[in-house]
Amino acid sequence: MVEKEAGEDDGGATTAAAAASSSMSFDLPEEVLQVLPSDPFEQLDVARKITSIALATRVSSLEAESSSLRAQLADRDNLVADLESQIESLDASLSAASDKLSLADQEKDKLLRENASLSSNVRKLQRDVAKLEVFRKTLMQSLQEDEDSSVKSTGGGGGAAVGAHHIIAKPTPSGNIDLCIAFLFVVPLEMFFMNGAN
Is the pTM for the entire model greater than 0.70? Predict the structure, then answer.
Protein backbone atom coordinates (compact mmCIF):
# COMPACT_ATOMS: atom_id res chain seq x y z
CA MET A 1 0.00 0.00 0.00
CA VAL A 2 2.80 2.40 0.90
CA GLU A 3 4.65 1.61 -2.31
CA LYS A 4 1.52 2.20 -4.30
CA GLU A 5 1.02 5.58 -2.71
CA ALA A 6 4.66 6.46 -3.38
CA GLY A 7 4.21 5.47 -7.00
CA GLU A 8 1.15 7.58 -7.25
CA ASP A 9 3.07 10.51 -5.74
CA ASP A 10 5.87 10.11 -8.32
CA GLY A 11 3.35 9.97 -11.13
CA GLY A 12 1.66 13.10 -9.89
CA ALA A 13 4.97 14.94 -9.68
CA THR A 14 5.85 13.92 -13.23
CA THR A 15 2.49 15.08 -14.48
CA ALA A 16 2.86 18.39 -12.65
CA ALA A 17 6.32 18.90 -14.09
CA ALA A 18 5.04 18.17 -17.58
CA ALA A 19 2.17 20.57 -17.05
CA ALA A 20 4.55 23.24 -15.79
CA SER A 21 6.88 22.71 -18.76
CA SER A 22 3.92 22.92 -21.13
CA SER A 23 2.70 26.12 -19.53
CA MET A 24 6.18 27.76 -19.88
CA SER A 25 6.56 26.98 -23.58
CA PHE A 26 5.19 30.49 -24.44
CA ASP A 27 3.35 29.01 -27.41
CA LEU A 28 6.65 28.22 -29.14
CA PRO A 29 6.58 25.58 -31.87
CA GLU A 30 7.60 22.08 -30.84
CA GLU A 31 10.56 22.15 -33.23
CA VAL A 32 11.98 25.20 -31.45
CA LEU A 33 11.45 23.69 -28.04
CA GLN A 34 13.31 20.56 -29.08
CA VAL A 35 16.45 22.45 -30.15
CA LEU A 36 16.54 24.82 -27.17
CA PRO A 37 19.19 23.98 -24.59
CA SER A 38 17.96 22.92 -21.18
CA ASP A 39 20.19 25.39 -19.32
CA PRO A 40 18.36 28.71 -18.78
CA PHE A 41 21.54 30.77 -19.29
CA GLU A 42 22.21 29.02 -22.59
CA GLN A 43 18.60 29.73 -23.55
CA LEU A 44 19.19 33.42 -22.74
CA ASP A 45 22.34 33.40 -24.88
CA VAL A 46 20.39 31.86 -27.76
CA ALA A 47 17.63 34.42 -27.28
CA ARG A 48 20.21 37.24 -27.34
CA LYS A 49 21.72 35.92 -30.56
CA ILE A 50 18.28 35.55 -32.15
CA THR A 51 17.42 39.09 -31.07
CA SER A 52 20.70 40.39 -32.52
CA ILE A 53 20.04 38.60 -35.80
CA ALA A 54 16.49 39.99 -35.93
CA LEU A 55 17.69 43.49 -35.16
CA ALA A 56 20.50 43.29 -37.74
CA THR A 57 18.05 42.02 -40.36
CA ARG A 58 15.59 44.77 -39.53
CA VAL A 59 18.31 47.45 -39.58
CA SER A 60 19.59 46.17 -42.92
CA SER A 61 16.06 46.23 -44.33
CA LEU A 62 15.50 49.77 -43.04
CA GLU A 63 18.85 50.93 -44.46
CA ALA A 64 17.98 49.46 -47.87
CA GLU A 65 14.57 51.15 -47.74
CA SER A 66 16.20 54.42 -46.65
CA SER A 67 18.71 54.19 -49.51
CA SER A 68 15.88 53.59 -51.98
CA LEU A 69 13.96 56.55 -50.58
CA ARG A 70 17.06 58.76 -50.81
CA ALA A 71 17.51 57.73 -54.44
CA GLN A 72 13.87 58.54 -55.15
CA LEU A 73 14.26 61.86 -53.36
CA ALA A 74 17.34 62.68 -55.45
CA ASP A 75 15.37 61.84 -58.61
CA ARG A 76 12.55 64.07 -57.44
CA ASP A 77 15.02 66.88 -56.70
CA ASN A 78 16.49 66.54 -60.18
CA LEU A 79 12.99 66.57 -61.67
CA VAL A 80 12.07 69.66 -59.65
CA ALA A 81 15.27 71.42 -60.77
CA ASP A 82 14.53 70.52 -64.39
CA LEU A 83 10.96 71.79 -64.08
CA GLU A 84 12.15 75.01 -62.45
CA SER A 85 14.60 75.51 -65.32
CA GLN A 86 11.80 74.95 -67.83
CA ILE A 87 9.57 77.38 -65.93
CA GLU A 88 12.30 80.03 -66.00
CA SER A 89 12.78 79.48 -69.73
CA LEU A 90 9.02 79.70 -70.32
CA ASP A 91 8.83 82.85 -68.20
CA ALA A 92 11.61 84.41 -70.27
CA SER A 93 9.85 83.39 -73.50
CA LEU A 94 6.56 84.76 -72.19
CA SER A 95 8.21 88.04 -71.23
CA ALA A 96 9.81 88.35 -74.67
CA ALA A 97 6.50 87.51 -76.36
CA SER A 98 4.71 90.08 -74.20
CA ASP A 99 7.28 92.72 -75.17
CA LYS A 100 6.89 91.85 -78.85
CA LEU A 101 3.11 91.98 -78.52
CA SER A 102 3.30 95.37 -76.84
CA LEU A 103 5.56 96.69 -79.60
CA ALA A 104 3.24 95.21 -82.22
CA ASP A 105 0.25 96.91 -80.59
CA GLN A 106 2.11 100.22 -80.53
CA GLU A 107 3.11 99.80 -84.18
CA LYS A 108 -0.48 98.87 -85.04
CA ASP A 109 -1.81 101.99 -83.33
CA LYS A 110 0.79 104.10 -85.12
CA LEU A 111 -0.12 102.58 -88.49
CA LEU A 112 -3.82 103.09 -87.80
CA ARG A 113 -3.21 106.75 -87.03
CA GLU A 114 -1.06 107.14 -90.13
CA ASN A 115 -3.70 105.36 -92.21
CA ALA A 116 -6.41 107.64 -90.86
CA SER A 117 -4.24 110.69 -91.59
CA LEU A 118 -3.46 109.45 -95.11
CA SER A 119 -7.13 108.70 -95.77
CA SER A 120 -8.04 112.19 -94.63
CA ASN A 121 -5.34 113.71 -96.85
CA VAL A 122 -6.45 111.57 -99.80
CA ARG A 123 -10.06 112.69 -99.39
CA LYS A 124 -8.89 116.28 -99.15
CA LEU A 125 -6.76 115.90 -102.27
CA GLN A 126 -9.65 114.28 -104.11
CA ARG A 127 -11.83 117.26 -103.24
CA ASP A 128 -9.03 119.61 -104.34
CA VAL A 129 -8.62 117.68 -107.59
CA ALA A 130 -12.35 117.87 -108.24
CA LYS A 131 -12.29 121.61 -107.60
CA LEU A 132 -9.24 122.03 -109.84
CA GLU A 133 -10.91 120.01 -112.57
CA VAL A 134 -13.96 122.26 -112.40
CA PHE A 135 -11.68 125.30 -112.41
CA ARG A 136 -9.72 123.93 -115.37
CA LYS A 137 -12.86 123.28 -117.38
CA THR A 138 -14.23 126.70 -116.53
CA LEU A 139 -10.93 128.36 -117.44
CA MET A 140 -10.65 126.43 -120.70
CA GLN A 141 -14.21 127.30 -121.59
CA SER A 142 -13.61 130.97 -120.78
CA LEU A 143 -10.42 131.10 -122.83
CA GLN A 144 -12.11 129.31 -125.69
CA GLU A 145 -14.95 131.79 -125.59
CA ASP A 146 -12.47 134.68 -125.53
CA GLU A 147 -10.59 133.17 -128.43
CA ASP A 148 -13.77 132.63 -130.43
CA SER A 149 -14.85 136.17 -129.65
CA SER A 150 -11.47 137.51 -130.79
CA VAL A 151 -11.67 135.55 -134.04
CA LYS A 152 -15.17 136.83 -134.72
CA SER A 153 -14.19 140.44 -133.97
CA THR A 154 -11.33 140.38 -136.47
CA GLY A 155 -13.66 139.21 -139.25
CA GLY A 156 -12.62 137.59 -142.47
CA GLY A 157 -10.58 140.52 -143.91
CA GLY A 158 -7.46 139.80 -142.03
CA GLY A 159 -6.68 136.68 -144.04
CA ALA A 160 -3.22 135.30 -143.51
CA ALA A 161 -2.30 137.95 -140.99
CA VAL A 162 -5.11 136.88 -138.75
CA GLY A 163 -4.07 133.26 -139.16
CA ALA A 164 -0.50 134.15 -138.30
CA HIS A 165 -1.62 136.16 -135.31
CA HIS A 166 -3.81 133.25 -134.22
CA ILE A 167 -0.93 130.75 -134.45
CA ILE A 168 1.44 132.96 -132.50
CA ALA A 169 -1.02 133.95 -129.78
CA LYS A 170 -2.54 130.51 -129.18
CA PRO A 171 0.38 128.83 -127.34
CA THR A 172 0.55 131.64 -124.83
CA PRO A 173 -2.86 131.05 -123.16
CA SER A 174 -2.31 127.30 -123.34
CA GLY A 175 1.10 127.67 -121.69
CA ASN A 176 -0.42 129.86 -119.01
CA ILE A 177 -3.16 127.29 -118.40
CA ASP A 178 -0.64 124.48 -118.09
CA LEU A 179 1.49 126.56 -115.75
CA CYS A 180 -1.53 127.48 -113.64
CA ILE A 181 -2.74 123.89 -113.45
CA ALA A 182 0.74 122.63 -112.61
CA PHE A 183 1.04 125.22 -109.85
CA LEU A 184 -2.37 124.35 -108.45
CA PHE A 185 -1.49 120.63 -108.41
CA VAL A 186 2.10 120.86 -107.19
CA VAL A 187 1.46 123.12 -104.19
CA PRO A 188 -1.12 120.80 -102.53
CA LEU A 189 1.09 117.79 -103.24
CA GLU A 190 4.08 119.46 -101.62
CA MET A 191 1.93 120.35 -98.61
CA PHE A 192 0.69 116.73 -98.46
CA PHE A 193 4.19 115.25 -98.46
CA MET A 194 5.38 117.79 -95.91
CA ASN A 195 2.49 116.83 -93.63
CA GLY A 196 3.26 113.14 -94.15
CA ALA A 197 6.93 113.68 -93.27
CA ASN A 198 5.93 115.50 -90.08
Answer: no
